[in-house]
Write a structure and sequence with these properties.
341 residues; UDP-N-acetylmuramoyl-L-alanine:D-glutamate ligase; Protein-Tyrosine Phosphatase, Chain A; 6-stranded mixed β-sheet; 14 strands; 38% helix
Length: 341
């Protein structure tokens, strides 16, 4: 989204796909030419010090932190360590764009008293520099009022679903405002944005709505996606097809069982678990707690057996979320749906 807005005003380069590490990011920078005016780079990390090193390579002026989630918590050892690793970006940038609805993130920002740059906040709930108000989310997308520093406003129709995409739009808007992009230009670019394949991509297949979110998964993103599934899945069964969440190490069993609890509490009707660890989540989801029964459960050892059997489970009218870690290749299950239909 940042690239979509900035490229309308500046000659802009962005990194492609997952070229976001110490190899991919420098490769992206080799494509720079003297005429480029802005560069949008995703920086990935799974260990302390990696963001610092990527900043040394790229020399960013702006840093965006959308949230502190559970990705890489297994390798880093704690949520505090994940936050500290992401906040390494503050050592380099002069402008930090941060999610003011993430209290854990904001505590980390406040503790960084040595940061002398500008902090631009965005939020849906807490008063911030850039806000979305009167948010309405549907399968087709979201409608909201984009408000900049309580003075400029524009009605925006975002054509990608999910409340998290509203937050992404706010982050992109905050960066763009700081670089002099006018709100009408931001509105035009946001409304033209059509999303990224395998990232909450909605596909309608002859009476079955499939949400292809198979690019990757961690406990935080799974919870957000399942809650969006429940929000969008009205009128038919809510089906969660979830694969193992990798890179959780010592946290793996705990986080998968917690996912099972969350699935039951969210009101998922059918839970298709793929992989050994997601099988533990399925076991947990079956437990009756607080008088609330769990979903109908199907467990498969791998993506291939799930692909072969998925159409015996699904019915017309279902809304189906497919999500798992990249190593699980959950998109193959979607192939199992499309092959039959």
């Amino acid at each position: 989204m940042i690239y979509g807005i900035l490229s309308g005003k500046f000659r802009t380069l962005k990194n492609e796909g997952n070229l976001n590490n110490h190899i991919g990011l420098p490769l992206s920078l080799t494509r720079l030419n003297p005429y480029d005016e802005a560069v949008v780079l995703e920086m990935g990390m799974n260990a302390s010090g990696e963001i610092r090193r990527l900043c040394e390579i790229a020399g960013p002026t702006h840093g965006v932190i959308t949230n502190i989630g559970s990705a890489h918590v297994g390798r880093l050892g704690s949520y505090e360590a994940v936050r500290a690793a992401k906040l390494e970006v503050l050592e380099r940038v002069s402008v930090a764009v941060v999610n003011n609805d993430d209290g854990f993130l904001m505590k980390g920002i406040e503790a960084r008293e040595n940061f002398r740059g500008e902090i631009i906040t965005f939020a849906v709930n807490n008063t911030s520099d850039v806000m979305a108000k009167n948010v309405i989310v549907s399968k087709q997308g979201s409608d909201f009022i984009l408000e900049i520093r309580d003075t400029e406003r524009a009605q925006v129709r975002l054509n990608v679903p999910g409340l998290f995409n509203v937050y992404n739009a706010l982050a992109a808007s905050a960066v763009s405002v700081s670089l002099g992009v006018e709100i009408k230009e931001i509105k035009t670019a946001l409304e033209a944005y059509r999303g990224v394949p395998m990232r909450f991509e909605i596909i309608n297949m002859k009476g079955i709505t499939v949400i292809n979110d198979s690019y990757n998964a961690n406990p935080s993103s799974v919870e957000k996606s399942v809650k969006e599934l429940a929000r969008l899945g009205t009128g038919g069964r809510i089906v969660a097809v979830l694969g193992d969440m990798r890179e959780l190490d010592a946290f793996s069993e705990k986080e998968h069982r917690a996912a099972g609890d969350m699935i039951r509490e969210t009101g998922v009707d059918v839970f298709v678990a793929v992989g050994e660890m997601m099988g533990l989540a399925a076991e947990e989801s079956r437990k009756v707690k607080g008088g609330k029964a769990g979903p109908e459960v199907f467990i498969f050892k791998d993506v291939y057996s799930a692909k072969e059997n998925i159409m015996d489970i699904l019915k017309q009218g279902d809304t189906v979320l497919v999500k798992g870690s990249r190593a699980m290749s959950m998109e193959k299950i979607i192939e199992g749906i499309t092959d039959v239909i």
